[in-house]
Specification:
The chain has 228 residues and is an all-alpha fold. It is 68% helix and 0% strand. The protein has nine helices and no strands. Helix 7 packs across helix 8.
């Protein structure tokens, strides 16, 4: 009886020991096979940060490229036009009523004795083969011819000639730095044709030039005055 009790006690003790060992083994196996924690949220955040940096760098490069093109030199035609700013007259020069009235009155008086309707010195024919950017320079040269060869010799022949001559002389002085852009052979050719015609007509040519002072006023304004 006693042996059976001891055996039973020993059996329960052995079963408890085996159960305890089983728990330890199970705990150990769980510890060994426990999966590592994946830091997916952190890794995703890092990837997003890198993508944001790349996007930011691309944006900076794009902006810099855009600024580079803005700072690049202008095309030749536009750059030349800006460089030629001395070929401009203030609009107010042509808005003075008294000088415009003197000019138009003087021209009208001279046309009363002009019977030549076949020739004209100032007109669109002067612009043949001349680019618009050189129109002001051309009219500057026409003004110079009229001042030197016409108005300077007729101060005593017509009233108001001196005032009108002073006006055109002032405009010519303001255009002193106006230079032609590109080749000027066509400009010189058109000017020579005008001067040759004046010489051929003699005194009648001088009278006709005075009769076209109103045209010279208008053409000079259109070619050289500031654009609004």
């Amino acid at each position: 009886m006693v042996r059976r009790q001891l055996a039973a006690a020993g059996g329960r003790g052995g079963w408890r020991q085996q159960r305890w060992r089983g728990y330890r083994a199970l705990s150990y196996s769980k510890t060994i096979t426990k999966p590592r924690v994946k830091l997916l949220p952190f890794t995703g955040a890092m990837n997003s940060l890198q993508d944001w940096k790349k996007g930011f760098l691309w944006m900076v490069c794009f902006c810099c490229l855009h600024l580079f093109f803005l700072a690049s030199p202008l095309p030749l035609g536009e750059e030349d036009a800006l460089a030629n700013h001395p070929c401009r007259l203030r609009k107010t020069n042509f808005q003075k009523f008294y000088i415009k009235n003197h000019t138009y009155t003087l021209a009208k008086m001279a046309r009363l004795s002009d019977n030549d309707t076949d020739n004209r010195f100032v007109g669109q024919h002067l612009y043949i083969n001349i680019k618009e950017r050189n129109h002001c320079y051309l009219m500057k040269r026409v003004t110079e011819v009229v001042l030197k060869t016409i108005l300077s010799e007729l101060k005593n022949q017509y009233p108001m000639v001196e005032k009108v001559a002073d006006f055109f002389g002032l405009l010519h002085k303001e255009l002193s730095n106006c230079k032609p852009l590109g080749q000027k052979e066509d400009i010189e050719s058109n000017l020579e044709k005008m001067k040759d015609k004046m010489e051929q007509l003699g005194e009648n040519g001088k009278n006709k030039a005075v009769g076209e002072l109103d045209l010279l006023f208008d053409y000079l304004e259109n070619a050289c005055s500031e654009r609004n």
